Amino acid sequence: MDYELVTSLDEVVQNIKQFNSDLSEELDVISQLSQFKHWYFIPQINLFGPSKYIGYKDMNTSRYNRGRSKTGVDTEKELKTWFIKLSRDSENSKKLMTELEAILACHNKKTRTNAHIHILKNGINLKIE
């Protein structure tokens, strides 16, 4: 099965919403939370999502299939269109990492020690419906 990469920020937003919905429904993706390295944050909706999940079109937990046939390398390249990686030492990164750690802790999971936070690039205006 081929998976297409996202081509618009709207698709990324939908995937992040779906990821968080899957978490709230206690779906299988919870078992993989500690494996994700690159996390993306959109302040307008106050949600995080991992690269390997949000970087493919129309993603959900069953399509994600524990990451089989997917690579974070491809999704990282695509997501750079809209996001920048924060320095791990920056105040914003530390604040967001603390928020992410709290979310994962609700599912008895921890972030990877080498996890990174990515945020929308300056100037990207997101209209949330």
**Secondary-structure element pattern, one letter each:** HEEHHHEHE
Number of domains: 1
Mean pLDDT over the residues: 90
Q: Which secondary-structure class do the elements indicate?
A: alpha+beta
| Spatial sequence of strands, sheet with the most strands | 2-1-4-3
Q: Give the biggest beta sheet.
A: 4 strands, mixed
The DSSP helix count reads 5
Q: Identify the overall geometry.
A: globular
Q: Can you give the helix content as a percent range?
A: 25-40%
Number of strands: 4
Radius of gyration: 14 Å
* Proportion in β-strands: 5-15%
Low-confidence stretches: none
What does this structure look like?
The structure is a single chain. The protein is an alpha+beta fold and 129 residues long. The protein contains 5 helices and 4 strands, in the order H-E-E-H-H-H-E-H-E. Strand 1 and strand 2 (47-50) form a beta hairpin. The chain is globular, with a radius of gyration of 14 Å. The model has no long low-confidence stretch (mean pLDDT 90).
